[in-house]
UniProtKB/TrEMBL annotation:
Transmembrane regions: none
Keywords: Carbohydrate metabolism, Chitin degradation, Glycosidase, Hydrolase, Polysaccharide degradation, Signal
Gene Ontology biological process: carbohydrate metabolic process; chitin catabolic process
Domain GH18: 31-394
Name of the protein: chitinase
Record flagged with keyword Signal: yes
InterPro entries according to UniProt: Chitinase_II/V-like_cat, Chitinase_insertion_sf, GH, Glyco_hydro18_cat, Glyco_hydro_18_chit_AS, Glycosyl_Hydrlase_18
SMART domains, per database record: Glyco_18
Species of origin: Alloacidobacterium dinghuense
Family matches, as CDD domains: GH18_chitinase
Catalysed reactions, semicolon-separated: Random endo-hydrolysis of N-acetyl-beta-D-glucosaminide (1->4)-beta-linkages in chitin and chitodextrins
Signal peptide as annotated in the record: 1-22
Family per record: Belongs to the glycosyl hydrolase 18 family.
Amino acid sequence: MRRFTFSSLLLLSILLSGLNLFGETANPAKPLLVGYFPQWGIYNDPPYFVKDLITSGSATLLDQLNYAQGFIVNARCAVADPNADLSLAYTKANSVNGKADSASSQLRGSFHQLQEFKKRYPRIKILISLEGKAHSFAEAAKPENRAAFVSSCIDTFMRGHFAPQIHARGIFDGFDVDWEYPEPEDAANYLALLQEFRKQLDAVRPGLKLTIAAGPSPHMYHGVDFGEVAKVVDEIGLMNYDYSGPWRKVTGFHAPLYSENGGSADRTVQDYEDAGAPPEKLLLGVPFYGYSWNSVGEENHGLFQPGEAVHQDRPYRYIQTLIASSTVYRDPAAQAPWLYDGNTFWTYEDPASARFKGEYAQEHGLGGVMVWELGEDSIDAQLLKAVNAGLRLPAAQPQIAREPVISGGSESTGAAKE
């Protein structure tokens, strides 16, 4: 056996100190909490402004803000809503820095608010989420258009050339690509587009982020190699919602963590891992909205029953106003809540289920949690705070409890059965 010198032993001790018995780092990267900010929030009633991230307590919890959205026009990147992003004059009351915009200011709108927000919270990464129709992405990703398209995105959002007379570099720290969804013939171009983004972002400045929003199943991407995708992107934000909704005539959970009656977030996570995506690149998606059905029968407290679907999603901040006058039921395995008042059924996320999902992401070694979207939370960010509480549990915490937690008006315990 080879003898170790003192210096060799010291080096070995240093190397081993960073590992546990299972070969994992003793101080793994902290899971991320990522939230989408709605560009259209300024038009809501009440409006949702960047400042609300601060007053609600969200800002101190977030690691990354994905601003939705940037557009694709004629295979080039474009500012999606110039009024919301660049022109809207903020008042002293609704601005991040407490100062009203001057009429002579070159940059106003939400982009200026993000600029001020970044000064106050420099640790938070801000990404522009590129969204648009599938055919727009497909056209932009073609070999003859790809490099010029990505270059236009870099010029617009990384270099800050938003309009002929409006320039502000440094607001955004990268791109989130939300292509829903590539056709079979687009699979090679999908990966090549991401590789082009990675190449050009690294040329601007190493450390700029590239992420994607991914659907409830990797099979929706028709042969895309997610092992290769994961080598290029920093995060894969899973859209773990819309497993059920108003396109169905039977009620159900739209974002269950576990389910024996259709898709589930857990199944989606497993499918992406099987497709080659490492868990540390995956973000568990948590929705802050819900769906409803009317004329639902009383059997099984309205769950998995025929009904008249309401073709409109509603934010949690609205659904929480219904809790006092309805009965809240909860599935003990998935911790998924539902409301039922004898006629109307609601599927949604609440603080108990949101925390449960944060715990799941941490316990399964995922990269973190992604929420859609921040403007739909309660005014005091109850859902985001719950997700954060689950995500930040110390590693020594016991396993997730499976007992139902019921809250609201009338209370009922136990799982509903099909």
